[in-house]
Structure formats: structure tokens, C-alpha cells
Amino acid sequence: MINIINKKKDSIIKAAVIFTILLGYCVVAGFSLIIPLLLVFYGCHLALFKKIDARRFLHLGFLLVLIVALGHAMTEYWKFSPYVVPVASVAMLAMLLFNDFQLAFSMSFMSSAILSLAVGMPLDYCIIVFIGGLTGAYIIRDARTRGKVLFAGLLAGMVQAFGYFLVHPVFSKELFLDGLEPFFANGLLSAAIVLATLKIFESLFGELTNFSLLELSDSLTQPLLKRLAFEAPGTYHHSLVLSNLAGAAADAIDANTLLVRVGSYYHDIGKLVKPEYFTENQMMADNKHDELEPSMSRLVILNHIKEGVEIARKHKLSPKLIDFIQQHHGTSLIYYFYQKALTGDDAESVSEENYRYPGPKPQTKETAIVMLADSVEGATRALDEHTPTRISDMVRKVINNKFIDGQLDECTLTLREIETISGVFSRELSAMYHVRVKYPNAKKSNGHNGEEERS
Predict the structure, then answer these.
(1) What is the pLDDT of residues 111-127, one digit of tens each?
(2) What is the tally of structural domains in the chain?
């Protein structure tokens, strides 16, 4: 708790420093002092209605400071037209970094308004670059390729050019040179800035974009996934199955599907330390836990969370992925070893709390989906018969138990979304364990036997 308070204090101090820098820059550059006042009201809006902390406000303020400085330098020192200033890049970066269109909308307005005041442009300029930023942010949402970023920039430039001609409807060569060319340059420059700086801002802000998630999902290049496939193949296969199952559920409730899939890949990397102690990696070998007391087995199982976090931090994985490692069991009970301990000689001294995972409970929809998918997949795999009815009953039983145990109390999943997730799990698992036709034993015919015909 003390660390959290200290981090909040640090963020507030940093935000105050950014505000002071902006105020000083406005004074030195001769800008209107209404700019910092506008920023203060924007910060109040974010804090009261978007519940954004000081750290996020610091990041947004930093983007605004950069575009003001860049716009001032381009117009005052490099003598570019104000229409060339890549204002749309701010909204596009906000959309990619924070995956929030409302935030991108407000950032498009703030960057347009502040820059208009800074370079002394009229209201029509503010409106034109505002709609350009909105266009870029809308097109770039969920972008996974560089081509889409480039297209978003070009379209933002086209929309701004169209807005310019609506304000100045008389066409002439001078108007073309003054309006169309600068705005197309604006669009290309916005896309180039986004592509060039996105990785930098991801590192500075601690965010994960779709581009980084796609890189992290490549099992051919990611060291941790390669290790998982080689050292713990059962866990690796389980993670692949889980990613498909959880991804389908995330898509059904409009959560971040790509984040869920990648989080599923890395959620069990802690099993790399002692893979042979987990059932999916034992293959035909004996169960290592048969030789251990329940209390020792408990420690091995619990440690895969701690060790997973340590491995993730060693490999500098994003905190968003570490959340999946810490939260995919919540504070659930390690039921099998708890029951085994209750049947032992020291049953009276067995505490249920000692057989629960350390948590925390899932804090987001994405981590909650992975927790449910992990539990459901394991329980379904253990069924004797994989009929649709039995699978559906098991899915509902597992999810209800998690709900009753309070594991979903700290995330934002609604009852309607939980019901949707349950239906998706039942459908996907029924398809995974679909009943195959049992072929009769056939006599050899033309050199083929029944098994070959079946394949």
C-alpha cells in the first residue's frame, strides 16, 4: 500500500513538473496563458469522468507538450505552413497506445485547440485539424500492420484537405498549393511520426500496442515460447489451446482479443522451472507428487506464479503480461492437494488459506477470461465422456464456482458477459472434443487396411 501511495505521489509530482514546463514554455514563447488553463480543465475532466490517474495524465501531457513544441518550431523557425504540422499524429498515437477512442477524441481536440492558440491560427484551422485527427484515430484503431498506419495518415490528410476546401470553396492554383499539398504532407508526416516513435512511447509509458503483441506471439522468434515448446511441451500445447478458447470469448464480449491471446501464451511460463511436476508435462512418467507431502506439492504449485513473474521481469515483459501470470488463478483453492492434506495425519492443522494462490484476483476482463478459460479447459479435459451436454454442464459448474468463490469480484465483467463467455466456452470445447465416427474393422483391400482408410 505504501509503495502504491509513493508511486501516485511520484506521478503527481511528475505531472506538476510537466505542467510547469508547459507554463514556462508558454511564457517564453509568448503564447496565450489560456493554454495551461485549458490543460488544467482537461486534467480535471480526465480525473473526474475518465478516472485517469496522474501517471496517464503525465503521458498525455507529454504528448501535448511535444506537439506544441514541434508546431512552434516548424512555423517559427523552419517557416513551414501551419497546415503541415502533423497534429493528427497525437490522436493516432493516443489511440494505439491507450486503445481508447474517447481518449483519442479528447486528445485530438486538445492538440488542435492548443496548437491553434500557439501558432495564432483561426477557428477554422482548429476544426480542420481536429477532424483530421479524429479520422486518423478511427482508422488506426486495432491496426496490426504498418500499411494501415500509412493509410490512416493519408486519409487524415485527405479529410483535412476536403475541410480546407469547404472553408475556401473557390478553387485556384494558389489555393491548391496553399491547401492540398500541405495537408497531404501533413498526413504522410503524421503516419511517419507514429511509425518512428511508437516503440519509444511504448517503452516510456509502459504500454502494449498490437504491434508489440504480434511480435510477442511469434513462437519462432520469442525465446520464452521456444523454451516452453522444448522444455515443457505439454504446457506449451495447453497455452495454445487456451489462447484459442480465451480469444474466442474475448472477441464475443468485445474485449482485447490480441492481448488475451498473448497473455494466454505467457501465463504459465513459471512452469519452465520444474515442468515435470505438472501433469501435462509428465507424459508416460510417474507423477512426481506421489513422492511428496501435500504441503510440499502446494509449494511447488504456488511457486510457478512467483517464478513466472521473475522470468517475465528478467525478459522485460510488459506489466500487462505479468498481470496474466499473477492473476490467472486469482486466490483460488488448490483443491486436490488441500483435500489430500485433509486426509493426512495432520489434518487438524491444515489451513485452507495456505492452499490458496497468492493472487491478486483478476483486475480486468482480459485476465478474468484467461482465468475462467484455464479452469474450464482443465476440468473439461478430465471428463470421461466429452459430450456437448456434459461439457456445457461442466463449464457452467466451473464458472459458477469461481463466481461464488469471489474470484470475479474485482474485474468489470457483467453477468451478461459471463453468460456469453460460458456459451462460447461450451461451443468451442464441444468442437474441440467432437465425437468421431467409429469405423468398423475392415479387411485388407487393395493393399489398404481400415486404419489407412480412416486416416
Answers:
(1) 999 899 888 888 899 99
(2) 2
Amino acid of residue 198: L
Q: Are residues 362 and 396 in the same domain?
A: yes
CB 408 within 8 A of CB 368: yes
Residue 377 lies in a domain: yes
For residue 144, the domain's CATH number is 1.10.1760
Distance from C-alpha of 133 to C-alpha of 159, rounded to nearest angstrom: 9
The stretch 164-173 carries a mean pLDDT of 75
Residue 353, in any domain of the structure: yes
Whose cell is 488463478? That residue is 329
372-400 mean pLDDT: 93
Any domain includes 92: yes
Say yes or no: 223 and 186 in one domain: no
CA–CA distance from 21 to each of 8, 119, 158 (Å)?
Answer: 20, 18, 34
274, 232 contact by CB (below 8 A): no
Cα distance between residue 407 and residue 357, in whole Å: 11
β-bridge partners, 356: 333
Q: Which domain holds residue 230?
A: 217-432
Grid coordinates given for 41: 480543465
Q: Quote the mean pLDDT of the chain.
A: 86
> Strand, helix or coil at 186?
helix
